[in-house]
Amino acid sequence: MKLKDTLVAATAAILLLVLTYLWLSDDGIKVAPTIDITLLDGKILSLKDLRGQPVLVTFWATTCIGCRREVPHLIALYNKYQPQGLEIVAIAMYYDPPAQVLTFKQQKNLPYTVALDLKNEAAQAFGGVRLTPTTFVINKKGRIVFQKIGEFNVEAMDTLIKGLIAEPKA
């Protein structure tokens, strides 16, 4: 019984230390991948070139209802914070036909960067994204500070981005 109590206490202490570290760490827990992605116009964007500014990366699909509901919020966030340095990169899933993605971008007048993940490489680099929408927020140091599968909370996202913009440059 004494050994069991000791193991439980040790496990609880280790868990508490890990959770405390994660709670106190403002750098995020994972370095964002420094991948190159193909934009709709065929140009290449390197995510490492966006270091020094906050970046919201969203994996989406034109047929995804939740993704479609997020579009007005993404546009509003972009219009509000892009002048202060925010970048938004919307990466269409590999199964989304490029012509359909282009049509959607034009119809919705998306002001932010839209990329294609034709070989599923970006989704894999971000930990094997399979569901949409999946959102990542990367701080100025290039670390992932937020990850969400499903639609994000607009007010919380606004607060997060505002805080990241206020941080000193990396």
List segments where confidence is low: pLDDT < 50 over at least 5 consecutive residues.
Answer: 15-28
Structural class: alpha+beta
Compute the separation of the termini in Å: 51 Å
Strand segment count:
8
| Radius of gyration based on Cα positions | 18 Å
* Largest sheet features: 8 strands, mixed
The number of distinct helices, counting runs of at least 4 residues, comes to: 5
Q: Report the CATH topology name.
A: Glutaredoxin
Q: How big a fraction of the residues is strand?
A: 15-25%
Q: What is the typical, i.e. mean, pLDDT? A: 89
Series of H and E elements: HEEEEHEHEHEEH
Please give the domain count: 1
Strand line-up in the sheet with most strands: 1-8-7-4-5-6-2-3
Q: Helix coverage percent of residues?
A: 40-55%
What would CATH call the architecture?
Answer: 3-Layer(aba) Sandwich
- Would you state the CATH class? Alpha Beta
Show the helix and strand layout.
Layout: H1 2-24, E1 30-31, E2 36-39, E3 44-46, E4 55-60, H2 65-81, E5 87-92, H3 98-108, E6 113-116, H4 121-125, E7 134-138, E8 143-149, H5 154-166
Parallel strand pairs: 4-5, 5-6
Antiparallel strand pairs: 1-8, 2-3, 2-6, 4-7, 7-8
